[in-house]
Amino acid sequence: MKRHIFALLGIFLLFLSISCGAPGVPEASDGTNQESNGASEPVAGLEFIFEDEQYSFQALRAIAASSCGAADIGECLSTTYRIEEGDDESWYAEWLTTAQRIEKAAQDFEAQGHELSAKECYFRASNYYRSAEFFLHTDPQDPRIVETWKKSRDCFVAGAMLSDTPITPVEIPFEDTTLPGYLCLVDESGAERPLLIIHTGFDGTAEELYFTTASAALKRGFNCLLFEGPGQGRVIREQHMTFRPNWETVVTPVVDFAIEQPEVDPDRIVLVGISFGGYLAPRAAAFEPRIKICIANGGIYDFHASSLRNAPPDFDKVLDDESQAEDFDEYIYEEMKTDPSLRWSFSNGMFTFGATSPSEWLRMTRPYNLRDCADKITCHMLVVDSENDKALPGQAKQLYDALQCPKDFMLFTAEEGAGEHCQVGAYMISNERIFNWLEETLQKLEE
Fold first, then answer.
1. I need a surface site. Which of 157, 197, 250, 434 has the fewest CB within 10 A?
2. pLDDT tens per residue across span 219-239
3. Stretch (H or E) spanning 325
4. CA distance 393 to 312
5. For residues 411 and 429, what is the distance between their CA atoms, to the nearest angstrom?
C-alpha cells in the first residue's frame, strides 16, 4: 500500500534547487510589466553535459561564471568530461583536482609578481572549490565540507587582496556572534553611493555572489555588501546556525552595520535576494523600513505548498503521522541512492535546516511563506522569474499578485538564453536588465 502511495507522489519531482517559475507573463520592451495575467508550466530545461537535472545545472553554473571572470570554459569542459555521471565522489575529485591546479598557478604567478594573473586564477579556483564541495552534504559530518569550502573562501580572499577595487572582508554583529560578509566599493574615494545588500539562498556563498552580481553592480556605480546568514556559507558550516523563516531578524542587524559605513547612502539601500533568497529578502523587507527597494530573483510566495504541489491530496497529513512519515523517509532514502537530484535536494535541505529526516525537513519548511506579510511590504519590489525555472513554478507570479506595494515583474526567457534558474548561463543579460531597471527606479524615487 505504501509503495502505491509513494508511486503516486512521483517523488514530488522536487529536485529542489530552490527556484521558482511563472513563465508566460507578458512583458514590456524593457522586460518589466505592471500587470501579469496568468502563468504556464515551465518548458523543458536545458541539458548541459549531463542527463541528470542537478548535475547538468551545476555544470552550467560553474562554467557560466566565465562571463564574470571566475571560470574558463576549457577548464570546466575538461573537468566535467572526466566526471562519472551520478557519482558524487567523482564530481568532488575532478573539481578538486582542477581547483588545486589553478590555485597552484595563482600562487606561482603571485610569487613572480604577476598580480593580475594571480587574481584571475585565485578567483577561478574559488569557484572550482565551491563546485567540488556541492554534492558532499549527504553526510553532514564529512570533514571535506568545511575543508573544501574554506579553500574556496581563502582563494577568493587572496584574489580580493589583489583586486583594483576594494573588497574588504567584514564581520557583522549578530546576536551573540557575527555574520561574515564583504564590503565591495566602487573605488577608494569615500563617496557616498547607493548600497546593494545582497544575500544568496539555499546553497550559494557570498564569494559566488561577487562574481555573479556584485562585480556587475560595481561597474554601474553601486557599492555592495555581501553577507551570509543562518543556513548559508560559513554560518551553517562553521557556526552551525540553520535557516530561520523570520529573516528580518537577520537583515536588520546587517542594515544597522551598513548605515554606519561612510560610503553608504542610508536613503538608497537596496536588498537583493537570490534563489531561496527570493523568499528571504521579501520577508525581511516586510519588517525593515530602511530598505527602499527589494529585488527577489526569483520570487517565492509559499515554499512549502509548492514543495507538495505534485503530492496526492492531503499528503501534508502524512508528514504528521509518525508511522507514515517513517515509511516516507524509508522510501525517499531508497530513491536517493539512484537519483542524484533527489539525493542532493533532501541532503542539502536537511543540512541547512538542521533536520534529521526528509519528512522532518518538509515539516520545517511550513513557516516559509509570505501569506501573512506580503501586504506589509511598502518598498518598491522587483519580482524576477525565469521561464525554465522548474522547481517552484508559479511562485513568482503568486508573490507578485500578493504585493500591494509599487511593483514590477521581469521575466527571462529560454529564447534569449536566460530561462534557467536565476538566469544561470546568462549573467550578462540578467545584470543588464535588472540593473537598468534599478537605475531607472532609483531615479524615479529621487524625483
1. 157
2. 999 999 999 999 999 999 999
3. helix 322-336
4. 18
5. 12
Tell me, rounded to whole angstroms, the distance of Cα 297 from its chain centroid: 9
- For 356, phi then psi, to 5°, come to -105, -5
Provide the CA 378 distance to its chain's centre, in angstroms.
24
Angle at 355 between CA 352 and CA 356, to 5 degrees: 130
Nearest residue to 402 (alpha-carbon basis) of 305, 271, 329: 305
Average confidence (pLDDT) over 113-127: 98
Question: Given this model, what pLDDT does residue 102 score?
Answer: 98
Cβ-count burial of 7 within 10 angstroms (0-12 exposed, 13-18 middle, 19+ buried)?
exposed
The answer to whether 183 touches 168, Cβ cutoff 8 Å, is yes
Residues 11-26 as b/e (b if ≥16 CB within 10 A, e otherwise) read bbebbbbbbbbbbbbe
Which cell numbers hold the place of 249?
A: 531578524
> Per the structure block, which three cell numbers stand in for 399?
508573490
- Domain ranges, residue 291: 18-41+165-310+368-447
* C-alpha count within 13 angstroms, C-beta hemisphere, residue 275: 20
CA dihedral in degrees (127, 128, 134, 135; nearest 10)? Answer: 170
Whole-Å CA distances, 248 to 228, 271, 367 = 14, 11, 14
Residues recorded for the chain: 447
- Is residue 172, in this structure, part of any structural domain at all? yes
pLDDT digits (tens, 9 = 90+) for 280-306: 999 999 999 999 999 999 999 999 988
Rounded Cα distance between 393 and 371, Å, is 17
Provide the pLDDT for residue 2.
54
Q: How far apart (Å, rounded) are the C-alpha atoms in residues 403 and 373?
A: 9
Distance CA 312, CA 199 (A): 34
The CATH number covering residue 302 comes to 3.40.50.1820
Q: Judge whether 391 lies within some domain.
A: yes
pLDDT at residue 200 tops 80: yes
Domain count, the chain: 1
Confidence class of residue 389 from pLDDT cuts 50, 70 and 90? confident
CA dist list (Å): 348 to 23, 331, 340, 356? 27, 18, 12, 11
Alpha helices in 46-142 (DSSP H): 53-64, 73-82, 88-111, 115-133
